[in-house]
């Protein structure tokens, strides 16, 4: 079967660094961090007191009423708002999209953790108990809730799927949507990722795993420092990024603007450890090599790589090894950056927001920086060009972004300039 070409015709984002795709890009382009002291709950007694929260989130900014979202968890609200942005940006609306062969493909890791915590508080409260658990706890907490609400908002009867592969969820969702359109299951797909896990239980759980940065509570904007010798863990983030993916001829027929083409996707599993990546990066390298093959590209065809770059010792050194395996000598010519140094780690939404930054990097011929890279960990094996502290202008024909999740799940998406 001939593969159809897939392009991006709309984008939206709700992130720790901006309420829209443009605001989020402007922040990372200029090295502005969205990491600060936690305000969503009282973290006074927590070892970790910082996170990358979505600031001043106002549901009415997106044409929604507060009453519309009382039955939605925070991760669903983020996805719906980012989806509205992407659909509007593409030139569609609620009426016109209903007539298309359209669906929803979303990546999410944790679901409605805020709803789960609130339910448990009622459950264990001796003055409340099981009978006082809110009746909508189950439909609000399950991970498919976000995609379902987007489908309901737009009246879409096509497939509405949620993919959960930990931190690779957003990337894998885009890859799945790519194939659904390529082979004719859909002509149009709302696709991306969403996450909202910054609550007491979420932060405490990641802290117990010794995954979060805990040394920079007094200087939060310095906490996420990928590939730096003084890194001590990732910073939990939240938000959503969404694309309108569309079959090329379909987009051209309706005169849609085209941001870029989704060229290839690869996926793999380390099959090694529930939290730790393979130190040599060989598992993740399979996903990158598969994405290159899928796109019909050679390593030298990629100019920019948006790193998973979590700011943990295990990830940053392992990912660097992965790049050397996947790209060979070209790894030393790649322009790399970890935008997590500014956004924190959006978990299931990370791959989606980082793919969005790849699109903007291509469109504006600019590589965003890795901030806080003050003492590059050369001795630890992090010896590539990570664009330290200041972005650079660069003509970018193609960009890659990989996401490496707990359980050894790896995904890589390749985006190229539309010709």
Automatic annotation (TrEMBL):
Pathway: Lipid metabolism; fatty acid biosynthesis. GO terms for biological process: fatty acid biosynthetic process. One of its GO terms (cellular component) is cytosol. It catalyses: (9Z)-hexadecenoyl-[ACP] + malonyl-[ACP] + H(+) = 3-oxo-(11Z)-octadecenoyl-[ACP] + holo-[ACP] + CO2; a fatty acyl-[ACP] + malonyl-[ACP] + H(+) = a 3-oxoacyl-[ACP] + holo-[ACP] + CO2. Its EC number is 2.3.1.179. The active site is at 167 (for beta-ketoacyl synthase activity). It holds the Pfam family Ketoacyl-synt_C. It is an enzyme of class 2 (transferase). One of its GO terms (molecular function) is 3-oxoacyl-[acyl-carrier-protein] synthase activity. Keywords: Acyltransferase, Fatty acid biosynthesis, Fatty acid metabolism, Lipid biosynthesis, Lipid metabolism, Transferase. InterPro entries: 3-oxoacyl-ACP_synth-2, Beta-ketoacyl_synthase, Ketoacyl_synth_AS, Ketoacyl_synth_C, Ketoacyl_synth_N, PKS_Beta-ketoAc_synthase_dom, Thiolase-like. SUPFAM superfamilies: Thiolase-like. Residues 3-417 form the Ketosynthase family 3 (KS3) domain. Involved in the type II fatty acid elongation cycle. Catalyzes the elongation of a wide range of acyl-ACP by the addition of two carbons from malonyl-ACP to an acyl acceptor. Can efficiently catalyze the conversion of palmitoleoyl-ACP (cis-hexadec-9-enoyl-ACP) to cis-vaccenoyl-ACP (cis-octadec-11-enoyl-ACP), an essential step in the thermal regulation of fatty acid composition. Belongs to the thiolase-like superfamily. Beta-ketoacyl-ACP synthases family. This is 3-oxoacyl-[acyl-carrier-protein] synthase 2. The gene is fabF.
């Amino acid at each position: 079967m001939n593969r159809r070409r897939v392009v991006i015709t709309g984008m939206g984002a709700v992130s720790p660094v901006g309420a829209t795709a443009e605001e989020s890009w402007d922040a990372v382009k200029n090295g502005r961090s969205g990491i600060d002291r936690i305000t969503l709950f009282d973290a006074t007694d927590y070892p970790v007191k910082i996170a990358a929260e979505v600031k001043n989130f106002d549901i009415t900014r997106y044409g929604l009423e507060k009453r519309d979202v009382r039955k939605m968890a925070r991760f669903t609200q983020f996805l719906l708002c980012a989806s509205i942005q992407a659909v509007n940006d593409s030139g569609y609306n609620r009426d016109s999209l209903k007539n298309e062969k359209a669906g929803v493909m979303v990546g999410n890791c944790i679901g409605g953790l805020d709803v789960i915590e609130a339910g448990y508080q009622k459950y264990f409260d001796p003055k409340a108990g099981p009978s006082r658990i809110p009746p909508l706890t189950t439909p609000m907490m399950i991970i498919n809730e976000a995609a379902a609400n987007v489908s309901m908002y737009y009246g879409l009867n096509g497939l509405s799927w949620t993919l959960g592969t930990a931190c690779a969820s957003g990337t894998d969702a885009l890859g799945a949507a790519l194939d659904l359109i390529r082979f004719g299951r859909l002509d149009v797909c709302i696709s991306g990722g969403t996450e909202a896990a910054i609550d007491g239980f979420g932060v405490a759980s990641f802290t117990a795993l010794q995954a979060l940065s805990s040394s920079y509570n007094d200087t939060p904007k310095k906490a996420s420092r990928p590939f730096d010798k003084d890194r001590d863990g990732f910073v939990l983030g939240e938000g959503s990024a969404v694309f309108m993916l569309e079959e090329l001829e379909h987009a051209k027929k309706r005169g849609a603007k085209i941001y870029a083409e989704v060229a290839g996707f690869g996926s793999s599993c380390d099959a090694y450890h529930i939290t730790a990546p393979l130190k040599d990066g060989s598992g993740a390298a399979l996903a990158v090599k598969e994405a290159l093959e899928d796109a019909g590209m050679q390593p030298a065809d990629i100019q920019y790589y948006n790193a998973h770059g979590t700011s943990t010792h295990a990830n940053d050194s392992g990912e660097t090894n992965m790049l050397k395996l996947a790209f060979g000598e070209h790894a030393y010519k790649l322009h790399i950056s970890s935008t997590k140094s500014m956004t924190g780690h959006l978990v299931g939404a990370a791959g989606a927001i980082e793919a969005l930054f790849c699109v903007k990097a291509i469109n504006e011929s600019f590589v965003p920086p890795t901030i806080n890279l003050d003492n590059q960990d050369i001795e630890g094996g992090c010896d590539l060009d990570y664009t330290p502290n200041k972005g650079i202008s660069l003509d970018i024909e193609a960009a890659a972004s990989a996401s490496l999740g707990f359980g050894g799940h790896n995904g890589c998406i390749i985006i190229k300039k539309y010709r």
